[in-house]
User: Fold these one by one.
Assistant:
Number 1:
Amino acid sequence: MTRHRIAILGASGYTGAELVRLIATHPGMKIVALTADRKAGAAMAEVFPHLRHLALPRLVTIAEVDLKGVDLAFCALPHATTQEVISALPRDLKIVDLSADFRLRDPALYAHWYGHEHRALELQAEAVYGLTEFYREEIRAARLVAGTGCNAAAGLLAVVPLLEAGLIDPDEIIIDLVTGVSGAGRGAREGMLHAEVSEGFHAYNVASHRHMAEFDQEFAKAAGRPVTCSFTAHLAPQNRGILATIYLEGEAAAIHAELARRHAGEPFIRVLPLGESPHTRHVRGSNFCDLGVVADRRPGRTILFAALDNLVKGASGQAIQNANLMLGLDETAGLMAAPLFP
Amino acid sequence: MTRHRIAILGASGYTGAELVRLIATHPGMKIVALTADRKAGAAMAEVFPHLRHLALPRLVTIAEVDLKGVDLAFCALPHATTQEVISALPRDLKIVDLSADFRLRDPALYAHWYGHEHRALELQAEAVYGLTEFYREEIRAARLVAGTGCNAAAGLLAVVPLLEAGLIDPDEIIIDLVTGVSGAGRGAREGMLHAEVSEGFHAYNVASHRHMAEFDQEFAKAAGRPVTCSFTAHLAPQNRGILATIYLEGEAAAIHAELARRHAGEPFIRVLPLGESPHTRHVRGSNFCDLGVVADRRPGRTILFAALDNLVKGASGQAIQNANLMLGLDETAGLMAAPLFP
Amino acid sequence: MTRHRIAILGASGYTGAELVRLIATHPGMKIVALTADRKAGAAMAEVFPHLRHLALPRLVTIAEVDLKGVDLAFCALPHATTQEVISALPRDLKIVDLSADFRLRDPALYAHWYGHEHRALELQAEAVYGLTEFYREEIRAARLVAGTGCNAAAGLLAVVPLLEAGLIDPDEIIIDLVTGVSGAGRGAREGMLHAEVSEGFHAYNVASHRHMAEFDQEFAKAAGRPVTCSFTAHLAPQNRGILATIYLEGEAAAIHAELARRHAGEPFIRVLPLGESPHTRHVRGSNFCDLGVVADRRPGRTILFAALDNLVKGASGQAIQNANLMLGLDETAGLMAAPLFP
Amino acid sequence: MTRHRIAILGASGYTGAELVRLIATHPGMKIVALTADRKAGAAMAEVFPHLRHLALPRLVTIAEVDLKGVDLAFCALPHATTQEVISALPRDLKIVDLSADFRLRDPALYAHWYGHEHRALELQAEAVYGLTEFYREEIRAARLVAGTGCNAAAGLLAVVPLLEAGLIDPDEIIIDLVTGVSGAGRGAREGMLHAEVSEGFHAYNVASHRHMAEFDQEFAKAAGRPVTCSFTAHLAPQNRGILATIYLEGEAAAIHAELARRHAGEPFIRVLPLGESPHTRHVRGSNFCDLGVVADRRPGRTILFAALDNLVKGASGQAIQNANLMLGLDETAGLMAAPLFP
């Protein structure tokens, strides 16, 4: 198989390293450039010693990258700076972006949640939302794909089919979610120290988490009218994994049947038998998303669960899944490794 | 201060060890007997080496204990066997029970949730529910106090005042809760191995958790009519700590004001400023319960949080708090140690 | 590529699951039988839900397996029962055994360390010790290969080349080692509960650990005379990973040079630059073993480090590496996945 | 009991918070001032929410503290700045310093290990090394006590008595040690993030760790001649706890007998029965140090273990133990809380 030539912009963070890890055994991709502005000049093995066996290009600044001959760039840069970087890239370069910059289609919604006007409106209009299971054909044809928020991915894969099928009350959606710490990135912050995070549990950004904007956008599209859910994210003392526990008004059996039907052909969605609920550890390191449905003891109510690895299906695995489509590769190429347990 | 003479029946589990830990520096209690049927004959230091510096009686069987001269017995035995053991104890012995056997006042409710008829109905009728903050005077006068479920304690301290004050819709209560592993006890089970539990997160006993019976009982009493909540418990990879995230229909400001008012004089309830949410790590090892109130973005909805240490305020600390009252001691005696962080 | 037909005897433990995980994406192997005596009849997905996406044969008893047409069997059964099971297998079936039963060549040494006479002396004589880097050609020709102890693998890969080269004093070898909990297996034991293991550290089997027998055997072979090392194993609160810290009398520069030379062509040994020491997290989930050499401040002394994943290079990955050789496959087939970090 | 008036300089780090935690229930101390230059103006409850129930003075700068009426100051400031701060304090103020600035008596030794000349030589000459068990009478009379390094405390409590008794070869001491992450402090550093530290194990500062200077100083004093040991520190994924595994040439029985004899009256040293080794989890949150002795399989060699909580016996608990002596209080006041397990 010819290997497509890949650049990773922003390779010194966890999602960047995860892209390298996954591409290392990908039959159709080859890394030709890695950037990290602050660590330019370093070898990847210095920044991520677990990758030391790989023959990788040295980290450079974005300005130093020769993009000629690059088939696709993954962009794993911080929010806000991303839109400026991508604006400066060639307009025919295929891009999968992992930041939040191009997820929201409505500029007003973006400005509301991110606190400033979008500075690349044309690109924003062009970008396709990267939840493969719902935008597969658009992604196949896209030049710029915006990877979803990791929490958003978990909630959307579970709830969107139900809104589309009219099986739940759109006004009664509560998403209670827990995420591991790697979602917060590699930046040094007191609150993410081991001594602060381990052996404890707490909620964060209560009632103000930005991933709600993605729920609003995609739920409204699915329901055909505005939808406002409740959403609370918690931080658990584990590195990887998101579990969404979703409280719905709707019948469990119908909900389960619809999810099983809708995701029947999906290579990465594993719908558990009715009555079972998933564990984050059972998707660790993999591109799978496990869905579980349990009838609440309150009649007409259902508890719906979604589990995925925030760095894989919630970020870098999803990005490669999309890139596979954009490059005409098998959608599952490089992504079928089984989860790592224990 | 004269030290009251204390027996602990069932001292080889985590709640038993926690009672010993707390009583070790309690000015008004002295341990005179420790039982553990399977480990009878052993020194406590063999079973719990962290307690090796204490001069403690050797573990014996219950049959071997001389209860004459014992002022109060803590009973930390498994469910179901507890009712038989306590039935055989002197009727004038003060008892604080940490099992589920005497929590439910209605024998039918007990039979429904625990799968068999109660075998000590007279004692069941006598027992006082051990949530100190709501049953203080009854506990002071009681002979037999039934400690609450650890999860129940978290939910009840947060929600009961709101039902009593009529500030929330009793039909729209969702309690999403996470607990550490020590609540599962010291019995060897595959599912509680470090390799199974660490680095992952999952729900358990979904829609069937027995602590719902306590919510039903106490919420109904507070609301003056039947209340059925939704409740989901999750297991987090940490040893101690419960965080309840509770979704309510009601106004956050009023809810916060009522909780602050109601718990104003409570020595162990710390109500956080409106808009803040608690961490389990900030109550670890202590008898505190932290409550937090945040307005949801959906108007008229509130997200309410309760955090406590399942082995302390959720079990052994609560038991000592109740025993202090029953023995005429200062309610806070032996319980004011600050949380252990990090 | 034709896929060789593989049976896994003892598939319900962690090393069994790890074999399945690795074979799932192996281009030259296909699982045709899985056994687990106590869980016979169950689907693998019930025992290990993380593998639920795989089309796997149902678990059966060993007696039920039709071994005709099986090219190679991995045997991941408990010590002692293994020798009886393998004795009953066809004498032309290729076998990679992961137990301790065939690691020691000297029956007297076996009897000393394992407390009973070996019951399959003929097989013991036939077995090849499975440390690929030192027995590659023997393994290629072998019918029965005995996988090494996980701790032994770490120590041997680091020290054997130095004894062979005469660079260290054989009488002054101290191996201080830490291992994650998965090495203890999936059996339910109080001492391996999350609440017992997490947030703490301790030594175990001090001065009596059975993996010392393997050091004695292989060190003596390398040095050409008896060698008795000191060895202490500790349990760390992590699932995977072994780090050996080895104190030696010898010159760091020469030691580093010899390790670099000796392992230069090895696909799975990564020798770090002189002065650096490895992390277990940088080999997690992979078949790599990282070696590091640092000069002690005491002249003529060296501190040598080896890190590997006990379930991969220490067990199931090593087993597949050996099976690849025995089946005439590329030695690295199915094993080049990069470590999972974080 | 009259409560002595206490100031804590540097209260925003872990050792500062631990001092507050321990003093909160200390019968003879009362906190009257807390400083934290960068967080001056904040309430302690904002910086350490677990302490929110305490009535504490607001954080101020050191310049703002009125030291009149302060009986004793704990100084928990960073190395190097400490010597300047203490130089500016009144010369009659009792001080327990937790930094490294006054641990080394020899200015040349200090300059060698810390890379600059000491800037308060007079204070350095005055300071007493704070290992209570060996300097009790000097500490009772001291004005300025220098708390030991946390790793040093573990090694010294175990080895010094043996050197003094001439039971071991001073030239063959290897201290292999593991510590939890809280010893690294609360400063935000990439390497101490949960995602970097959890689920992994590694050595750090190999052959160059500064706590070796304390071993050199105290071992030489005990042996009556220079002693150079090997010392390797590792980081384990746990918040608290140090375990030193020490390899010695000497007889286990004699070593055990001497440690038992020497520490017989010590309130915080628990010598385990010969052949047992301690766990860090069994001292967590307490001021105990557990010592264990096991005979190596190599004749004449012994493996010696020491476990303590780095934030308590290794820092803040030790500091209070010393302060108790300096203030004429019972040495154990406020320090007898049992370890927190699990």
Number 2:
Amino acid sequence: MGKSEYGALADAMARTAENLETVLDRMIPTDQAAERDLMDAMRYATLDGGKRIRPFLVVQSASLFGVAENAAYRAGAAVELIHCYSLVHDDLPAMDDDALRRGKPTVHKHFDEATAILAGDALLTQAFEVLASDATHSNPSVRCELVTELAKASGAHGMVGGQMIDLKAEKVDLDESDIGAITRLQRLKTGRLIDFSAQAGAILGRAPSSARDALRGYTHDLGLAFQIADDLLDVEGDAATVGKATKKDAERGKATFVSILGAEKARDQANRLADQASAHLKLFGDKADLLRDLARFVVTRSH
Amino acid sequence: MGKSEYGALADAMARTAENLETVLDRMIPTDQAAERDLMDAMRYATLDGGKRIRPFLVVQSASLFGVAENAAYRAGAAVELIHCYSLVHDDLPAMDDDALRRGKPTVHKHFDEATAILAGDALLTQAFEVLASDATHSNPSVRCELVTELAKASGAHGMVGGQMIDLKAEKVDLDESDIGAITRLQRLKTGRLIDFSAQAGAILGRAPSSARDALRGYTHDLGLAFQIADDLLDVEGDAATVGKATKKDAERGKATFVSILGAEKARDQANRLADQASAHLKLFGDKADLLRDLARFVVTRSH
């Protein structure tokens, strides 16, 4: 992130990531007798990693509605537990078979496959425990809504469904006429969880439906912009900067926005989506400036 | 189940299993375009299988407190989704590497490993969606308590932790002095979810703590009795009757109650635990007769 251009965003994201690290560190169990490896793998998979974009969305969205920071960070941690579990399972040999993640060996490489499967299961389970706890919000209706929405966003009709389509997509050829299919895939695989992140702040703050609709419009465009940028990084980045293997999509003959549209048209589309995303935030005035900066950042980032 | 000896129990269990089948059948998604395999695998993993002992516990416990059947079945379905996901993941090549389950090819054999991992993730996620829904109970505090308790019972400090210990246990030799370690393993791996099943009925019925304590005593002993009986079946049963591969523990040099105590002492212990389990139910009078029958049944079953 260029400090000059994104100074305020960079500071806010760094602060969120640092706070979230403390929250996750306290939240995830430490070693216990025989299941020590499980706890170690859970911590390895979640701590000290990533830009924490989803928790940042929760925290920023929550701040629009005056939600206590502690509540926002707990919801942000729950989303990050889901995101991290999905990375652990996606990296498995039977799935994407990746050896490198955030510049470190993946969980099944550092531990073993069984530990990676179980650590993913435990992180997924813990996300719902965190949301249902009264430490997250005093109102149990709010907590139930968080659980329901996170489950929908991350289950068979959300993230897991998207991952399934993605695995199948490697086996079929898609052309430009299938841009709708790719859009749907990405909407499920990454979009729904990004959307939940912003909705979580609104749910915690019991925001009116106008505000929730505006955030939904924002994350819809942000999610797609983010994914196109990710596809571009896969084509144009190098592993050292990006922190994971690149050129994978092409090697696998996998259809992406970039393979279908070409790099130039894809970049234009990402930029257009980032502008569109920001435009949805009008009703929040300058309180949403960091969310606007984020939309710009996701399409210009180099990792 | 010998019809003569367990007539009432057999009828009640069959009715529960049949009703639960309908509930699960409506609950688990059917085919959708590209993610059809995921939905098919979720249904394959959950429908038409098992004795549904955990849902039976939920339904019976709920009936002690006058809970609506619909609520009990939804909670029972949530527990069964967790149980079924755990079987799918445990059967994976990186874990127990089993080809046969309930007399059918395991999910990763019938579909593939990636689909099995994702189907397990989706079932796990759906369990919490089911509990958080207002169709399960009108009071959101009750729903949050169900989510919290199920997460604790099935996560790193419950079922998943137990599975981790179990995988490690195959690599070390345990002797009789380690009966405490095996007990702890089984308590986590199978006991916590069995306990949650009975507690779920009490939570739905807002039962007093005396009733909850009694049920906890019952499931504590029932769970261990069930596990010892399972170990005995592994040693003495044949695959055709039991519906899954047998003699596995010995082949793997895995310490079990039977390998440590010997078959005869293990059977005595299981019977003693079954009696003890029933003794905890005194305060429910004859309303708990089916739960008492169940304790007897789990130590005499042949599959």
